[in-house]
Design goal:
With 196 residues, the chain is α+β, with helices and mostly antiparallel strands. It has 5 helices and 7 strands. The chain has one domain. It has a 7-stranded antiparallel beta sheet, sandwiched between helices.
């Protein structure tokens, strides 16, 4: 049996297991951590906007955007990662998101990075909220010193950018990504249920 076939089947099984595991995770951060999480998200947006005029324009012009301040990733041959995100419209947080990401590659150990998603139309944001944005974003994306708007076109009217811990845009694949969304009202309701 060819090694490539075995690896492909292993990847399919691993990704399926990861998706099942992530489905049981909370979409919003814990209530006790929410304020700190929101602050981290807003500080990341402010920092990147100050350092890069191109990104500042994207945050201003987008119909909405999602900020995942810390996405953890690890594995060998088959890697997976996940992270919480805050979703904004008109510079106001409207909800939270959970991202799970799976890819095949020679990643050893762990890695952490941030992810930005820009929704350039109402339809794109709605698709994200309904959980219909799942797939591959395999093109490389980077941003130059001039602050251009290069990025991966993840789906129609959706651009993603990956940021390393130093704040630099990096060339890398997002792999297969799955997103779950929860509105502010849904998050508050779930927090209340857990406190009862």
């Amino acid at each position: 049996m060819p090694l490539t076939y075995v690896l492909h089947r292993m990847a399919q099984a691993s990704i399926a297991c990861c998706i099942l595991a992530i489905s049981g995770c909370n979409i919003a951060p814990k209530e006790v951590d929410a304020e700190s999480f929101d602050q981290k998200s807003e500080e990341l947006v402010e920092k990147l906007s100050q350092e890069n005029p191109g990104l500042a324009s994207m945050f201003q012009d987008a119909y909405g955007y999602a900020v995942f301040p810390s996405v953890g990733q690890g594995g060998f041959i088959i890697s997976s990662g996940w992270g919480h995100g805050a979703v904004y419209q008109g510079q106001q947080r409207i909800g939270y998101a959970l991202m799970s990401q799976h890819s095949i590659g020679a990643l050893v150990g762990g890695d952490k990075w941030s992810l930005l998603m820009f929704f350039n139309s109402e339809g794109a944001l709605k698709q994200f909220q309904e959980g219909k944005l799942a797939g591959n974003a395999t093109a490389n994306y980077a941003i130059g010193d001039s602050g251009n708007n290069a990025g991966t076109n993840y789906a129609k009217d959706v651009v993603v950018k990956r940021v390393d811990p130093a704040g630099a845009m990096v060339n890398a694949s997002v792999g297969f990504s799955n997103f779950k969304y929860e509105s502010n009202a849904q998050a508050a309701e779930n927090w209340k249920k857990k406190s009862d």
